[in-house]
Amino acid sequence: MPWNMQDYPASMKNLEDLTRKKAIEIGNALLADDYPEDRAIPIAISQAKEWISNVTQQERQSFADEKNPRKTDSHDHDPEKARLLNAAVLVKFDPDEKEWLVLSEGAQRASDRLATKEEAIARGSDIAENKQSCLKIYKMDGTLQETKEFK
Q1: What stretch of H or E contains 137?
Q2: According to DSSP H, which parts of 37-137 are helical?
């Protein structure tokens, strides 16, 4: 069942209002893509927290000014977004920037850029666990080191 700012899962009640609004928006889109609620909720919360920590103040304000999500909002099915939500999570080294990247397989941009491999593995594990996908950890030379399943 879709959610709005007055009727949402209990696990979203302690989120800051703007983070909750984003989680509801993401969650409703996942439900429209036929994700079960028990998978949609943790993914939506995780993605909303990540989004809120990476946006500019201007983007926050712009999102705050938008209408609140409603249960009757339509969500166009976007196969590309659905594919990325189910994709494996990768931890790779970027030799140009000398940092570790966390990204979904096939994504154009990294969701996180971290100083150490340990930090990247921890973040990637959280994302893969929420997505119920797998984590592929690469060595600095680009070869696959290991794969962890979170299904």
Answers
A1: strand 134-138
A2: 37-54, 57-65, 79-86, 117-131
Summarize pLDDT for 18-52 with one digit per residue, the tens: 999 999 988 888 887 778 888 889 998 988 898 88
Q: How many residues does the chain have?
A: 151
How many Cα atoms within 13 Å fall on the side-chain side of residue 118? 0
Q: How far is CA 144 from CA 136, 140, 147, in A?
A: 7, 9, 8
List of the chain residues with pLDDT < 50: none
d(CA 62, CA 78): 23
Quick one: tokens of 99? 């940092």
* pTM: predicted TM-score of the whole model, two decimal places: 0.55
Please tell me whether residue 36 adopts helix, strand or coil conformation.
Answer: coil
Q: What is the largest CA-CA distance in the chain?
A: 49
Question: What does pLDDT average to over the chain?
Answer: 86
3-state DSSP call for residue 113?
strand
Host H or E run for residue 22? helix 17-32
pLDDT at 101: 95
